[in-house]
Design brief:
Elements (H helix, E strand, L loop, with lengths): L26 E4 L2 E7 L2 E7 L5 E7 L2 H17 L12 H11 L4 H15 L3 E2 L6 E2 L11 H24 L6 H11 L12 H9 L18 H20 L26 H9 L9 H10 L3 H4 L7 E3 L5 E5 L2 E3 L7 E3 L8 E5 L6
Antiparallel strand pairs: 1-2, 2-3, 3-4, 5-6, 7-8, 8-11, 9-10
């Protein structure tokens, strides 16, 4: 059975005006649509969609052209692939925040996605080789094509690389948090070695004209911006994938090969003597971190998991080793106090065994 609408065959006559269509205007019905002559030599195709709304397909120079366009729309209706013309008109700048708001995400993931959207996806970026910018937030979803994504991705790589260069160009220096800690210690204010600092302490440091720290750790020259670009692209691909499932897009336009791939630096496992040397350096106020150094070296736990361990999570085994029960992690979200939450994934809740040597 054909998906095309039922149209009576035309008799001989003018190729542009089928037989049976008189000079006076008249309407022919075809399945769920119809074709009418609006004026001599002009034919309008209309149809009724699944939502019972009447819509025009368009106006054409010949009856056959109008019938072909109508047949295509009705075939989509019969196949279940039809979508209303209005869908896809929503701009990415409206859809993406809505997508983020209703999606079930952990606080840390939501914060990271919000930062990627704000910095790289829903902001104008300079297109390399031109004097113009591309702003994906203004694009209706259905107008985001592979070409648009490719142009944005080219601009994204340049923007993230430039951001990394500017960060490195500021020279080897401590972060603002390190500045605040140094200033607090110099002024006799109580401050922890690590972790989130009180808002009042930050405000006091800024009120003192943000004095710099005396010493500065080296910045990593490995920062290139490629990871930020890959993460932003992966997020856009995920959002467009959900737009396809919402039938706002026919296909995902994010098809650039390896654009979401990251190449993390190789992790170097320190030798036992190095671990012992670092642990031995933890004296005085840093003594409490000695156990953290040893456990970190032998377990491979994430920092958020390591510093969320409690006494009840540590057990001795019959073989003389130690078993850790990872049940929670520290959650650090910008603008919120440090809190405990579940591990990064469901499989993150796990036992971790340490050898007897780790007890030293």
């Amino acid at each position: 059975m054909s998906d095309s609408p039922t149209i009576n065959p035309a008799r001989r006559g003018d190729a542009s005006t089928p037989q049976g269509v008189r000079a006076s205007r008249r309407t022919r019905r075809a399945a769920y649509g119809n074709i009418r002559e609006t004026r001599p030599g002009r034919f309008q195709a209309r149809y009724t969609g699944p939502d019972k709304k009447r819509r025009p397909v368009g106006t054409f120079d010949t009856y056959d052209a109008a019938a072909a366009a109508l047949a295509k729309v009705l075939a989509d209706v019969h196949r279940g692939t039809y979508r209303e013309p209005e869908t896809g008109e929503i701009a990415l700048g409206e859809y993406a925040p809505r997508w983020l708001a209703i999606r079930e995400l952990k606080d840390t993931t939501r914060s990271r996605y919000d930062d990627l959207l704000r910095r790289w996806i829903l902001t104008p970026l300079d297109v390399p080789g031109t004097a113009r910018q591309i702003d994906l937030s203004t694009y209706p979803l259905r107008s985001i094509s592979h070409g648009v994504v490719s142009e944005w991705y080219a601009a994204l790589k340049v923007a993230t690389a430039k951001s990394a260069e500017e960060w490195l160009a500021r020279g080897p220096g401590p972060s603002e948090a390190q500045h605040v800690r140094a200033w607090a210690r110099q002024n006799g204010r109580p401050v922890k070695e690590s972790g989130r600092m009180p808002t009042a302490l930050w405000e006091a440091w800024r009120a003192a004209d943000s004095p710099p720290a005396a010493e500065a750790p080296e910045k990593s020259a490995a920062v290139t911006g490629r990871t930020q670009a890959a993460r932003a692209y992966a997020l856009l691909r995920t959002i467009c994938g959900d737009a396809v499932r919402d039938r706002l897009l026919d296909a995902n336009p994010c098809t650039i090969r390896r654009a979401a791939k990251t190449s993390p630096a190789e992790r170097v496992i320190p030798a036992g003597s190095v671990v012992d040397m670092i642990a031995a350096a933890c004296r005085g106020s840093s003594e409490r971190y000695r156990a953290a150094v040893i456990v970190s070296a032998w377990s491979g736990l994430r920092a958020s998991e390591l510093f969320a361990l409690r006494r009840q999570d540590v057990e001795r085994t019959r073989s003389g080793g130690v078993r850790l029960r990872v049940r929670q992690a520290l959650v650090d979200v910008t603008g919120k106090p440090l809190a405990f939450g579940p591990p990064k994934s469901d499989v993150g809740k796990r036992p971790v065994h340490l050898p007897p040597d780790a007890r030293s």
